[in-house]
Amino acid sequence: MRTVGRPRTVDAAQSSLALLLNLVRTETATTRQELERHSELGRAVVADRLTTMIDLGLLREGELGQATGGRAPRQMRFRQDAGSLLVSAIDQNSIALGVADLNGQMLVEHHEAARLDAGPEAILERLATIFDWLLKETEKPAPWGIGLALPGPIEKPAAVFGTVPVLQGMQSWQGFPFLERLSMRYGVPIFARSGVQTMTMGEAKAGGGRGLSDIIYVKLGRSITAGLISEGRLHRGAQGAAGMIGHSRVGDELLGAVAGADALAREGMAAAEDGRSPYLAQVLLRQGEVSVVDIGHAAQLGDLFCVELLGRCGRMVGEALAPLTNLINPALIVIGGLVAESGGDSLLAGIREAVYRQSHPMVSRDLQIMRSQMGASAGLVGAAQVVVEELFSSSTLQGWIGHGTPLRHPDFQRGLERYKRTLALEMAPSGQTAP
Question: Could you say which architecture CATH assigns to the domain 10-78?
Answer without folding.
Answer: Orthogonal Bundle (1.10)
